[in-house]
Design brief:
With 371 residues, the chain is an all-alpha fold. It is built from 10 helices and no strands. Helix 2 crosses helix 7 and helix 2 runs antiparallel to helix 8.
């Protein structure tokens, strides 16, 4: 039968061509199915990711909303506490000042009387009023450390700084361009030093020496005033270091601060409980809400891919069976090389144009043509 097929006419090849094209069509369908499967798998992956992203976004947003509600309450509470502490500090500062005033009242009064005494003393002895100033005693009768330091600073300024300035002004402005500039600068500096020294000595002789006894008594009064001031500072430092606030009547502020602290603890506990409920219950509810809305579509896509895979399995079996059938029916006669639609079409052309009348002649002519 197979040998007889070598002598078949062109109708035999038409049948071969039809069967081969049928298998090729099945293979094309399989490729299309595989493309659909690939695209569907990508779509499923994208949908799964989209669902997870929506769940994560929804949970994060809802969690932030809950936290914000409590955080706003906490911040409001802390703001009230800060304002209340400011009010308390102001009230305490006022009470401390009042306490300092009370405990230093005698010293303040004593200093006032000493100042009146000194003023009266200086007036009675016709001593100029500026001689009562701290600056005068620092320059002409220094005793305390600060007075000595002020004396040294003024001395350096008057007998070093001012002469140096005068020298610079003389060289740069007053006598600039003069051929005697150096001499004139030296004369200017010397004159400046002389004038300053003269004024100092004049005040020293005209005031200090003339009214020395009165100034010495004023020195004693000033020392008493300074001692009282040191004692007042010591009292203020002692009061400031006193940690007992009970004497300042700050109970209403402390009670309010305690109330705010209690509210803060309550809010913090409520927040913690809300976060625990969110983690244990709300997250699951939110997840289920998204899943209920979107999993149906995902399941349909998975069902589609399962159906597609089943269809591909059936198609692959059909292709396998058809391929085996082609090999059995035509492979032994035509050979593997001629069991393709293109070569069968070439054989049909050779028979249709009269080159060959049988299949065997067409094969021989095909090979003889060197194709």
């Amino acid at each position: 039968m197979q040998n007889n097929a070598f002598y078949e006419n062109v109708d035999y090849l038409y049948q071969v061509q039809t069967d081969l094209e049928a298998v090729e069509q099945l293979k094309k369908e399989l490729v299309e199915y595989k493309n659909q499967e690939k695209n569907l798998k990508k779509a499923i992956t994208a949908e799964e990711k989209s669902i997870q992203d929506e769940i994560a976004t929804t949970i994060r947003k809802r969690k932030n909303e809950i936290e914000k509600v409590y955080d706003n309450q906490i911040e409001d509470n802390k703001s009230k506490s800060r304002k209340m502490k400011v009010k308390r500090d102001k009230a305490k500062s006022k009470r401390v000042d009042e306490r300092v005033s009370e405990e230093t009242a005698d010293l303040v009064e004593e200093n006032r009387q000493l100042q009146v005494e000194m003023k009266t003393l200086f007036k009675a002895n016709r001593v100029p009023a500026f001689c009562r100033s701290d600056a005068f005693y620092s320059l002409f009768m220094p005793k305390r450390i600060l007075e000595i330091l002020l004396f040294l600073v003024v001395f350096v300024l008057m007998f070093v700084g001012v002469p140096a300035l005068m020298y610079w002004l003389s060289a740069s402005i007053f006598f600039k361009g003069s051929k005697f500039v150096t001499l004139l600068c030296v004369l200017t500096v010397s004159t400046t030093v002389f004038v300053l020294a003269f004024v100092y000595v004049l005040i020293l002789n005209g005031v200090k020496l003339k009214h020395y006894e009165t100034l010495r008594e004023g020195r004693v009064i000033k020392d008493k005033i300074a001692a009282n001031k040191r004692q007042m500072r010591a009292i203020r430092n002692k009061i400031n270091k006193d940690k007992d606030d009970s004497q300042y009547g700050l109970d209403k502020y402390d009670d309010k601060l305690a109330e705010l602290d209690e509210q803060l603890r309550d809010i913090s506990n409520e927040k913690q409980e809300a976060m625990t409920v969110f983690e244990n219950e709300t997250k699951q509810v939110l997840t289920e809400e998204v899943n209920d809305r979107r999993l149906a579509k995902l399941e349909r896509m998975k069902d589609d891919i399962e159906q597609l895979e089943e269809d591909m399995t059936v198609l692959e079996e059909d292709i396998k069976a058809s391929t085996i059938a082609l090999a059995n029916n035509y492979g032994a006669i035509l050979g593997k090389d001629f069991c393709t639609p293109a070569k069968v079409a070439d054989l049909i052309s050779l028979m249709e144009d009269g080159t060959a009348e049988t299949v065997s002649e067409a094969i021989a002519a095909y090979k003889g043509s060197g194709r």
